[in-house]
Design goal:
One of its GO terms (biological process) is L-leucine catabolic process. Keywords: Flavoprotein, Oxidoreductase. Strands 1, 2, 3, 4, 5, 6 and 7 form a seven-stranded mixed β-sheet that branches. This protein has three domains: 127 residues, Orthogonal Bundle (Butyryl-Coa Dehydrogenase, subunit A, domain 1); 101 residues, Butyryl-CoA Dehydrogenase, subunit A, domain 2, CATH 2.40.110; 171 residues, Butyryl-CoA Dehydrogenase, subunit A, domain 3, CATH 1.20.140.10. The N terminus is likely disordered. Helices cover 45% and strands 11% of the residues. By secondary structure, it is of the alpha+beta class.
């Protein structure tokens, strides 16, 4: 396994990884504490922000940007220190995602998805699998993508007719965020072989570069254009039973104390909080970018209303306009409130994971009630982050003026990025979930989106 992926650039041009070569040596040492890791994420954002609008317009496959993440060490934020990782909690990882998203929403999203998929073995895997994959991903600085889209038909998993120690994945996925620029892909499918476990779901890591995996490079949404979230075809990809996460290879059955406990369902609220943190980063970046533009380029309105009681003169500067000051003040306050709620959710997830080791015998300690309460907190955070984010990214034009709609300014990308991903799953269902929790004390039944 190596950390180098290849691509036929005639299919879709990719950005040049060499443009960030200097950061390989500049960031050769990993941060030593949580403050340092968050600062590293801010440093990455500072590199990405100046040309984010131009890169988004060019819409090249983000090879260079993933290389920058590798140089930064952020891909290894969870990894064991003995293998060169940071051993940081989710609360720090979430903040890192948010900070990178301030520089470029697409790359913040790629980092978030990588961290979720890299961490998945710690939720779903056996102790042996956890040791194997955390070592490999960390020591080789691998970028992990996923071919896990619940609304598609599952990939079909069959027994290998030539080797009973192996299974075979086949099918297609409409969305595969980051997979085309990854070193490893998480595949997920349903077992179709006859037997008591027919229909059971299996997750597994596989190398990206192999004949059985092809990408369409057909991602062409209005936002998050550099996430390479297009479709993929999976054809006869062979996986060892030993790499079926949470399964007993000898019995060819799921390990009950791993996959049938509430702990195994934490993957879903964890990724929902990934979403929320890059939403928040994008919204904050929109307000900050607009404020910079207002200070530099927005002109005050030269006319008054003309009413008989008008006693004031037109503002001399845009920064004196009452409605501009009011809008910035309101949105800043709302973002502070949203941040406080999201940070509370970040800490809750970290505490839940931190309270239980990833060893098999301790996972049963997480109760359905604990899982449900954290899920409801995350749902509330998603409601607020979505509402505030869409409002902020739309209203920035009210306080920057008509010239700020110029393509070169790029203010529109913030709304486009948020609008694209906030449709991932309807926030209306989150409102209902929280409503049932408030009125009836009901925790949600775990699903692919809850």
């Amino acid at each position: 396994m190596t950390s180098t992926t290849t691509q036929d650039t005639s299919v879709h041009p990719s950005s040049d990884p060499s443009i960030y070569q200097e950061y390989e040596s500049k960031w050769s040492s990993l941060p030593s504490d949580s403050t340092g890791w968050i600062q590293r994420a801010k440093d990455v954002a500072a590199v990405l922000a100046p040309d984010a609008a131009a890169r988004e317009k060019a819409n090249k496959t983000p090879r260079a940007e993933v290389t920058l993440l590798k140089h930064s060490g952020l891909l290894k934020i969870f990894g064991p220190k003995e293998h060169g990782g940071g051993e940081q909690p989710w609360s720090v990882a979430y903040q890192a995602i948010r900070e990178v998203a301030k520089g470029d929403g697409s790359i913040g999203m790629l980092l978030g998805y990588h961290l979720l998929w890299a961490f998945s073995v710690s939720i779903l895997g056996t102790p042996t699998q956890i040791a194997k994959w955390t070592r490999l991903i960390t020591s080789q600085n691998l970028f992990v993508g996923g071919a896990v889209n619940p609304r598609d038909s599952d990939l079909v998993i069959t027994s290998d007719p030539n080797d009973p120690t192996k299974i075979v994945f086949s099918g297609s996925k409409h969305f595969t965020t980051g997979a085309a620029v990854s070193d490893l892909i998480v595949l997920e499918g349903a077992l179709t072989s006859d037997g008591p476990n027919k229909g059971q779901h299996i997750f597994a890591y596989v190398p990206t570069v192999q004949p059985g995996i092809t990408f369409s490079y057909n991602w062409d949404a209005i936002g998050l254009r550099l996430t390479e979230s297009g479709s993929a075809q999976i054809s006869n990809v062979v996986v060892d039973w030993e790499d079926a996460l949470g399964w007993d290879a000898s019995l060819k059955s799921p390990v009950p104390e791993i996959l049938t406990v509430p702990y195994a369902t934490l993957l879903l609220p964890t990724i929902q909080l990934v979403f929320i943190n890059f939403y928040l980063g994008i919204a904050q970046a929109a307000l900050d970018t607009a404020a910079g533009y207002t200070r530099k380029a927005t002109r005050p309105w030269p006319y008054l209303s003309g009413g008989e009681r008008e006693t004031t003169s037109p503002a001399e500067k845009a920064t004196d306009e009452f409605y501009i000051l009011q809008t910035y003040g309101t949105h800043h306050a709302h973002l502070l409130a949203a941040t406080a709620l999201v940070d509370r959710a970040n800490e809750a997830v970290s505490e839940l994971f931190g309270a239980y080791s990833h060893q098999r015998e301790n996972r049963g300690g997480v109760t359905a009630q604990q899982r449900g309460e954290v899920s409801e907190l995350i749902a509330a955070a998603k409601i607020v982050a979505t509402d505030v984010g869409l409002k902020v990214t739309s209203d920035v034009f009210e306080v920057t003026g008509s010239r700020a709609t110029a393509s070169k300014v790029g203010l529109d990308r913030f709304w486009r990025d948020l609008r694209t991903h906030t449709l991932h799953d309807p926030v209306a269902y989150k409102r209902r979930e929280v409503g049932r929790w408030v009125l009836l004390g009901e925790i949600p039944t775990p699903t692919w989106y809850t």
